[in-house]
Specification:
By secondary structure, the chain is of the alpha/beta class. The chain has 3 domains: 44 residues; 134 residues, Orthogonal Bundle (Cyclin A, domain 1); 80 residues, no CATH class. It has 12 helices and 6 strands. The strands form 2 sheets. A 4-stranded mixed sheet has the order 1-2-6-5. It has a two-stranded antiparallel ribbon with strand order 3-4. The termini are far apart. It comes from Pontimicrobium aquaticum. This is Zinc-dependent peptidase. It holds the Pfam family Peptidase_M90.
Length: 282
Amino acid sequence: MINSFTLQDSSLNNTIIAIFLIALLIMIFYFGFKMVEMAYVMKYKKPLYNHFYLKLKRLNPNQKSVLKNNFYFFSKLNHKQKRYFEHRVAEFIKDKTFIGRDGLLMTDEVKVLISATAVMLTFGFRDFYIGLIDKVFVYPNPFYSTTNKNHHKGEFNPKLKSIVFSWEDFKHGYNVGDDNLNLGIHEFAHAIHLNSIKERDVSSTIFKDSFNELTTLLSNNKSLRDKLIASKYFRAYAYENQFEFLAVLVEYFFETPKEFQSQFPKIYSKVKQMLNFNYASY
């Protein structure tokens, strides 16, 4: 009996030691990787990697058809990028609650095009879910907002973790693709901006730090500020505050990227760095 218990105790101790050593090795690997990635981020201003999935999710045939036929950005991607993009759209749809208002049905078209917009903006991110959004409300037309007692085409409410769109105006943003007005991009840019302030993942950190670099660049460069305003390239609404400025920059980044890059290469470069994506090259 004594020998039996001794053997059992010895076996248990060996198991505990083995588990402890495995856990220690995992911790060493994790913190080692974090240090390597931190050095990489500081040097290159981008994550060490963006895409790693154990299994790629797929959209159903109708959803895939909507993505292929109605979302131009998707057609510009290579085969591997398309699979990653489809996976992220499927995951975004699954992660968020879509709610139609005033009789609007939540069709595959509505869910896919809204989700694809979010995924497009975060395609250079590792974490693409935008944690400050739980619910997506969609109205047929401009809606009355109880937040500021006015009619809106779209809004982002971080307190309620919700983003709201007028479907009519959301679609107009893609029907006219080069007028630098895109409701979906604008509102998701607000959400990504505030999410980057709240979160500490690598992509949020790069986004936040890059925007700070941009504001410092503009603060210290009067000639660039004067050129920016005199050009009238960006609409006047961009100068309301820093949040609207960023949202408008992101709209222009996707709507007229080559003109943006040509007129203001330093500003374009900072937006590219924020999003870890060079849209002008596609």
